Amino acid sequence: MRMILVAVTAISLMGSVASAQAGCITGAIVGGIAGHFAHHGAAGAAAGCAAGHYVSKSRSRTMYRRTY
Q1: Cβ atoms within 10 A of the Cβ of 48, count?
Q2: What confidence tens digit (pLDDT) does each residue in 29-44 have?
Q3: CB under 8 Å to 36, separation ≥6 — which residues?
Q4: What is residue 42's predicted lDDT score, i.e. its pLDDT?
Q5: Beta strands of the chain (E only): which ranges?
Q6: Average pLDDT over residues 57-68
Q7: What's the rounded Cα separation, in Å, for the pair 4 and 45?
């Protein structure tokens, strides 16, 4: 039940934040889950946030270059 609540909350938050924050939240969720299986949930979430932010930022730059 707790896992379902966390998943629903995470999905609902993704629609209400800016793109850079969404990359961080998505990466933190994925990294936290992967880190949980390796018994390093917090470290996985931090690394996932950093990676998600980087990917989101690079996608934004690419879309800006294609537009102009």
Answers
A1: 23
A2: 888 888 888 888 888 8
A3: 44
A4: 83
A5: none
A6: 78
A7: 18
* 15-40 b/e (C-beta count within 10 Å ≥ 16 → b): eeeeeebbbbbbbbbbbbbebeeeee
pLDDT digits (tens, 9 = 90+) for 1-17: 777 777 777 666 665 55
Domain ranges of the chain: 2-67
pTM above 0.70, yes or no: no
Q: What is the DSSP letter of 15?
A: T
| Type of residue numbered 6 | V
Nearest Cα to 19, choosing from 64, 34, 45, 43? 64
C-alpha count within 13 angstroms, C-beta hemisphere, residue 41: 4
